[in-house]
Amino acid sequence: MLKSSIPLALLSVGLLGAVPVHADEASLRQEMATMRAELSALQAEVNQLRTASPATTPSIASTPPAAPNGPDAAEAPAPSGSMSIAAAASAPAPVPMASDQSTRLWGYGELNYNRPTGNASAAKADVRRAVLGFSHAFDEDTHVYGELEWEHAVVSATDPGESEVEQLYVEHQVVPAVAVRAGLSLIPLGFINERHEPANYYGVERNFVETAIIPSTWREGGVSLLGSTDSGLSWNVGLTTGFDLAKWDATAAEGRASPLGSIHQELAQANANDVSMYGAANWQGIPGFTVGGGVFSGGIGQDQKEFLAKNARLTLAEVHMRWQPGPFDLSALYAHGQISDTEALNVSFIGHPTPVPKSFWGGYVQGAWRVWQRGESSLAPFMRYEAFNTAASYAAIPQGLGVPVADTERVWTAGVNYYLTPSVVFKADYQHFNIADAVLGYGNRFNLGVGYQF
Amino acid sequence: MREPCAPPASRMFSRVGAAVIFAALSSAAAAAQVVAPALTVASLGREIFLDPSLSASGRMACATCHDPAHAHASPNALAVQSGGANLDVAGFRSVPSLRYLNTAAFFFDKEGTPTAGFNHDGSAASLLDQAELPLLAAHEMANGDAATVAARLRMAAYADDFLRLFGNDAFDDAERALLRARVAIAAYEKSAPELHPFDSKYDYFLKGSVRLAPAELRGFALFNRKDKGNCAACHTSTRGSDGSPPLFTDYSYDNLGVPRNAQIPANANPAYFDLGLCAVNRSDGVLRRDLCGAFKVPTLRNVATRQAFFHNGLFKTLHDVVRFYVRRETNPEEFYPRDADGIVMKFDDLPRELVRNVNTLEVPYDRRPGQAPRLDDAEIDDLVAFLQALTDGYDPATNTADPARNVPLAR
């Protein structure tokens, strides 16, 4: 099924590689036009060959999770998000599809084991998530994408599992380099939220900054416009639903663990009075180098009846960069969030442990080295340093009755990703915390995990 | 062992209950909306609720003990009320408020926490169930049987309304007539806005239209703080996830080890213990000795209007109640008697083998003699100031609250 997408993937990557970084624009456009013509010819050829095996279609402005598979990914088995982003930055022409080839399935999953060093009774093993995705091409320009997820193995009223629709959107290619998307889709902030499959990141667990500060997996309903330019810039802007501050529970620790994770709505009968907007961009004009960032902003009071923070607004911004020289993979990210108009609401939470923060932030630097590679297999040790604070400041509270700001949590993670194939990864790492983690309730731990994607 | 209900002997003059009610209602008349409601099952229920002629004494209505002017709870400081034909048969427990009742039958939640039900011990599965015994019980309205209730209903001022709602043969079968009266009472209790007004100062505060005074705000912090009062652990003070206003109870049960109250006549018998949650032979077969001595967590809305507290009405002021919570473990000698050897008999209202059921682990009970209580006297004053902000019928113009403010006059 995937084999048939290989020529297309090659073409798309080849197209990207062929773009000179500082090329004259006119000559570049001419070259692009030539290549598109060649591409069309090749596509016709591919279609002729595609008689027995089913086809897959890479998304146009976006790339579905299955894209990392294939020989390109095999040549660079370290987290393949860069390949995905590269593919996103280019604009491969859509493939005409016969009706029996227009639907395809993909998926990913991860199973994890966590063992705190000082508290063996808290060791946990978990089917962290099993995800099935599907897409269907209505025609060469119009697709629907969906992703269905089960977390924690068993879903029932008395079990911890969750069953979720993680993505569900229709995408239409307006022009070769611009697509419009409508439905439930991932907010393109940071590295992990859009590329959250286990082979796409180092370490058993997703990093803390991109779970506690930028929630993951974070999706909203709405309309977005996305595309790319010939200079290697990909962009994505949208109008969406947002968070609901009325869901804040000042008596629980969830808001301290992940301020936004505790008030996300996931388009589950979401209160949708307030419209949020976002914009994000990545520039990949130099092969192996990515720099980008994004801002998400919107009201989170949702005009709820008798709510004390009707005008509250969230603004979350992040910047990131990634450089992959040879076998090395270096990245860094910083995110900062701000919530306004929380004072009156927090007065109603006086005495409770978790008022709404005014600001929260986090950042990390990470380095990995692909030390060994044979065929499709490779080994990549890595190290990551994170610092984050989920309640860095609060609006003023009368009589000093507020709570102190949170301590900044600092986490070192050292471990290894072993890629049996580019899409099957075994992971092991050790995490050192400066304080007991707000979510876990404990500090240092060992982690083991296995993940796959197809 | 149902909710005891009767006025004190000193007030056994004619129709005293109604007089109390109407006096209170008169005081609130200026603010009340005097609009005759359309006849509904609930409006009929309200008339039944207010009718003293349904009792053997002719002087006791539901509203006599569940006084609208006192937030549908006891109008006096007696530990238990007395009923019967001569209003001289003592009850067993204090009168709970009928405001902000839950709507669910008793159950164990998924963590195994006993929850909901009606009466102090959860013994009634519904308002319909609960409404029967006060009409029949010897220490309350003392009708004894359905036929007596039906006969009194037939003579009531609202008998025509009863027939209009339930049919011309509504009194013919006594059991069915009683059932219809219970249905009407339950409908009133469930739906009447006066029983769920959500108009305390705290409600205004939650809407952002008034501020709490400094002492109230300090008390609010102490109420919520898990290392101080920890009251909100059971008496929920935050809105529900659907935005609904807090009820100041989670309808669970707890064993507080409240001292024995000699003012209750039944306690003259040293072998008698009111064991609350496990005292009832439930139809669901629940009889767990570890729950003996537990009573339902009441709402704290209108708690400042009470004059007798806890299931046995022992304490008479809110300050003393809070003081008991925080000093029970640090200074038990202030609350419990000593035995012949001079040793303080903590939790003296439980058989010795059940003393271990008392909640001694959570804040503020997690103290020992010699340690400082979780709250000092000044903090107790602040906490009480906050609790006074939970009284219904708040008027922002005068910064006063009257639980009868929004109770309509009788139809």
Written overview of the protein:
The complex is a heterodimer of chains A (454) and B (411). By secondary structure, chain A is mainly beta. Chain A has seven helices and 17 strands. Chain A is globular. Mean pLDDT of chain B is 89; it is low at 1-34. In chain B, helix 11 (318-327) packs across helix 12 (377-387). Chain B has helices at residues 16-27, 41-49, 62-65, 127-130, 132-136, 146-155, 159-166, 174-191, 201-206, 214-224, 318-327, 377-387, and strands at residues 82-83, 89-90, 107-108, 114-115, 253-254, 295-296, 394-395, 400-401. At the A-B interface, loops of A face helix 10 of B.
Features of this protein?
heterodimer; A: 454 residues; mainly beta; 16-stranded antiparallel β-barrel; 17 strands; 41% strand; globular; disordered N terminus; B: 411 residues; mainly alpha; two-stranded antiparallel ribbon; 12 helices; 8 strands; 4% strand
Structure described in brief:
With 454 residues, chain A is mainly beta. Chain A has helices spanning 6-17, 25-49, 71-75, 81-89, 209-213, 254-257, 343-347; strands at residues 103-116, 124-139, 142-151, 162-175, 178-186, 219-228, 233-240, 276-283, 289-299, 313-323, 328-339, 359-369, 372-374, 377-393, 409-421, 424-433, 445-453. Chain A is 14% helix and 41% strand.
Order of helix and strand elements from N to C terminus of chain A: HHHHEEEEEHEEHEEEEHEEEEEE
| Strand order within the widest beta sheet of chain A | 1-2-3-4-5-6-7-8-9-10-11-12-14-15-16-17
Taking pLDDT < 50 over at least 5 consecutive residues as the criterion, the unreliable ranges of chain B are 1-34
Q: In percent, how much strand structure appears in the residues of chain B?
A: under 5%
Oligomer: heterodimer
Number of helices of chain A: 7
